[in-house]
From TrEMBL:
<dbReference type="Pfam" id="PF00550">
    <property type="entry name" value="PP-binding"/>
</dbReference>
<feature type="domain" description="Carrier">
    <location>
        <begin position="4"/>
        <end position="79"/>
    </location>
</feature>
<dbReference type="InterPro" id="IPR009081">
    <property type="entry name" value="PP-bd_ACP"/>
</dbReference>
<protein>
    <submittedName>
        <fullName>Acyl carrier protein</fullName>
    </submittedName>
</protein>
<dbReference type="InterPro" id="IPR036736">
    <property type="entry name" value="ACP-like_sf"/>
</dbReference>
Length: 81
């Protein structure tokens, strides 16, 4: 079986940690409007991502994240540094 890709792992974490139950999500799915994230749950998500991918703190970068695709891109960018 193939290993999950980074976007797959990010998507799973975002959905799993979402404050509301969701069905299908796309890259354009908004964290706050569609998934119910607020400032506290976004901080919790940031901590989960940092732990899952062994990322350095991404506080400043995370303030611009609005959609699932933004989260995927952020993780990919930080891992590429």
């Amino acid at each position: 079986m193939a290993q999950p890709t980074i976007p797959d792992r990010v998507r799973s974490l975002v959905i799993e940690a979402a404050p509301v139950a969701v069905g299908q999500v796309t890259g354009a799915t908004a964290l706050t409007d569609d998934l119910g994230y607020d400032s506290l749950s976004l901080l919790e998500l940031m901590g989960l991502l940092e732990a899952e991918f062994d990322l350095p703190p991404v506080d400043g970068d995370f303030s611009r994240v609005r959609t699932l695709r933004d989260v995927e891109d952020l993780v990919q960018r930080v891992l590429g540094r």
